[in-house]
Design a protein that fits this description.
Layout lengths: L1 H6 L30 E5 L5 E6 L6 H4 L4 E4 L11 H8 L6 H12 L7 E5 L3 H13 L3 E6 L2 E2 L1 H12 L3 E7 L1 H8 L12 H9 L4 E6 L14 E7 L2 E7 L3 E2 H6 L2 E7 H13 L1
Parallel strand pairs: 5-7, 6-11, 7-8
Antiparallel strand pairs: 1-2, 2-3, 4-12, 5-9, 9-10, 10-12
Helix pairs in contact: 3-4, 5-6
Length: 276
């Protein structure tokens, strides 16, 4: 409303997805929730800056643990080039967003570049396969997220653990207290810790569950809001990050973005995990 009052018709709002919080259930096809967090600034020079984040533009910027990535001057190497036509297709009832995105990726060759960009739910299978491949190549895996309830992702971690890897889960203390009190705490449901706890029980000594102390119980209600996994191995570090909650419904039904980074960016995430 404030922006509308000063920008008038220059402010354009387009709605995508169904009302998952409304009374009517969302149908099986299409997008449930618009969960992208991507900002693009086109300068008068023609250069483009892009910003993506695990967090929302709001209180979480100062209250939550979040990760932000700045893509500066992306004119020559734009990971997000296929996002914009896909979003346009999602607002057009006569378009086929899946076909638009697939055709764009094929035409631009974006699927073969490093770093890699995945747009969900279109790349859901790629998300699973990239996670599995990175897990099998890792000696240590750090899952830094409040959401990890997915059969296939759990299976990938189990496969890595069977090969001798170690796995650390890092979440807010809500996970612990929700499981302890059998009541929802902050953003955590009582069974959010279940997959991590079952892996800890199945692979004693190889799995640790660590908690960042947050004041989720106060009016500020801050939390750990990351959604990333670091994979450490003999061939270097890999990080899978972005906006995607690691739950099957989110991976297959929400509009999200994910990135696979190596080299300096992955090393920075690993250093952050060690600090955390």
């Amino acid at each position: 409303g404030v922006l509308r009052s000063c920008a008038g018709e220059r402010l354009i709002i387009r709605r995508i997805g169904c009302d998952v919080f409304g009374k009517a259930a969302c149908g099986s096809p299409g997008i449930n929730t618009f969960h992208l967090k991507l900002m693009q600034v086109t300068r008068m020079s023609g250069l483009v800056d892009q910003i993506e984040s695990s967090g929302n533009i709001g209180k979480g910027m100062y209250a939550n643990l979040e990760d932000w990535i700045f893509f500066s001057r992306t004119q020559d190497r734009d990971l997000h080039v296929c996002v914009w036509p896909t979003l346009a297709a999602l607002t057009d009832a006569d378009s086929e967003p899946y076909a638009v995105y697939s055709r764009c990726v094929q035409d631009t060759g974006r699927g073969s570049q490093a770093p890699k960009f995945l747009m969900l739910p279109f790349d859901a299978e790629k998300y699973y396969s990239e996670f599995y491949r990175a897990a099998l190549g890792a000696s240590q895996i750090d899952v830094v997220s409040m959401d990890f309830r997915d059969r296939r992702l759990r299976g990938a971690l189990a496969a890595a653990l069977q090969q001798g890897a170690t796995v650390n889960f890092v979440a807010s203390t809500e996970w612990h207290y929700a499981a302890l009190t059998k009541e929802k705490q902050g953003t955590a449901d009582i069974d959010d810790i279940a997959d991590a706890a079952s892996l800890e029980s199945e692979f004693p000594g190889q799995v640790r569950i660590l908690f960042a102390e947050t004041n989720f119980y106060s009016s500020l209600r801050n939390t750990l809001h990351h959604k990333f996994v670091t994979f450490r191995g003999g061939n270097g570090n890999v990080v899978l990050t972005g906006t995607t909650n690691m739950k099957s419904g989110a991976i297959r039904r929400n509009l999200d973005q994910a990135y696979i980074f190596r080299d300096a960016v992955a090393d920075a995430y690993v250093a952050y995990v060690d600090w955390l």
